[in-house]
């Protein structure tokens, strides 16, 4: 077995399958201080899980993947701390999330601020106590007996396929979990309880009401202090708070979570962005298309979504036929492309659509405009030949940087996600296609002189991609443009063109989203601008105020003139002082 560090490698003589913790403890203990696992098929596998022989990349604790493992372990520490002070609480689930972790508890009453402080102090104690963490596979019957007093864990155990389940233990605490985890609670370093809120079991409002505690943890104290500073700053400009104050949007209980209603102010902001988006796409040779919101399930069977994405789709019956509310726009664009026989002379073809899609998300993970169930995606699909790849990618990258710059985002990070070279069989497409696609993405970034990080194994199975993450004033990353190859759908739908040789060839398909979803992008803008929109986006561009009633008539004339010139104006002739107006 060979393990690759950031610098150098470690060769181990093992008898697989093997738990690397015991091997490394004896032969390379320094690795256990800085690393938390290995990458297999792009996923982190901890040192406590048996693995086969092979060549693997080690995952550093203080990396993005490693921090996710650390936060997962911190969630278990949180549950352990809660049970020490509230032994009648029922822990349900506690995952790592994008930034930090949470754990949901079934308790009699919400946690008070004083109780949260007590829990945080207990978490710090558990970290200091340095419990070794162990992993064990046990039979389902044993697991049901172990968790018999917790109906939530029992429900989960009964749904798990197979005869065994995995549990992780630290001190007196044991939890049902697939991992991955650190090997010792001490490695978590520094913890902080952030907030608590209500939630529902499995995100279903019809099920038991739970209490969710959010937390954050970092190996180094300075990292935690910096995060808390940013967290407190961000709370002041939460888009959900500003969205209400500025009368931008609502989400109504009567219609369901994750479904956004745009108020007039929000509609103006959205309209201005969409109008600008359309004009810029037409300038660059894109053709606008519109696709229906529903389609027969047959379409989603061909695309593979029914097989792999069903749990996130809305399905229904109409005239005894199965239909799906569309979760994405790609298949519709492919159908339009396939209405004609395409020649290499017709390519590239660029379609663009502000298409509304619907995806089921558990209510527990919904978050204002940033995580919703219905949203409008600024989708674009480019159909081209291999010879056109380099120019198309470069043009899309330039377009993406231009678009985010218009909105004031000057700082960003670029990530290039490629396939795992050790597990090429897990990815769709040929070696030639992957090599050409990855090379064109890399060349475009380097040609423009941008710094970037390569995420080996980070590509989705159907193609490599560029992710651009936007940085705001307090250092938070926001999802920005994505440029993604797709080697899967062209094969499933047989998307071809007639080449110069007269033969049919599989088209190269590039999916790109420059803003992402309008909902998420505007949610990010609200926080980025702190509510102070630039003039071209401001719902009210000019306010006409009167000092006394003598000026009312003139003020109304000015107001009407502004409106006639296309300026968004507001008239205030109330009998109030200027300061109040």
From TrEMBL:
Transmembrane segments: none
Gene Ontology terms, MF aspect: ATP binding; metal ion binding; threonine-tRNA ligase activity; tRNA binding
GO biological process per UniProt: threonyl-tRNA aminoacylation
InterPro entries xrefs: aa-tRNA-synt_IIb, aa-tRNA-synth_II, aa-tRNA-synth_II/BPL/LPL, Anticodon-bd, Anticodon-bd_dom_sf, Thr-tRNA-ligase_IIa, Thr/Ala-tRNA-synth_IIc_edit, ThrRS_core
Positions of the Aminoacyl-transfer RNA synthetases class-II family profile domain: 238-534
A Gene Ontology cellular-component term: cytoplasm
Record keywords, A-Z: Aminoacyl-tRNA synthetase, ATP-binding, Ligase, Metal-binding, Nucleotide-binding, Protein biosynthesis, RNA-binding, tRNA-binding, Zinc
EC number: 6.1.1.3
Catalytic activity of the protein: tRNA(Thr) + L-threonine + ATP = L-threonyl-tRNA(Thr) + AMP + diphosphate + H(+)
Enzyme class label: ligase
Similarity section: Belongs to the class-II aminoacyl-tRNA synthetase family.
Protein name: Threonine--tRNA ligase
Species: candidate division WOR-3 bacterium
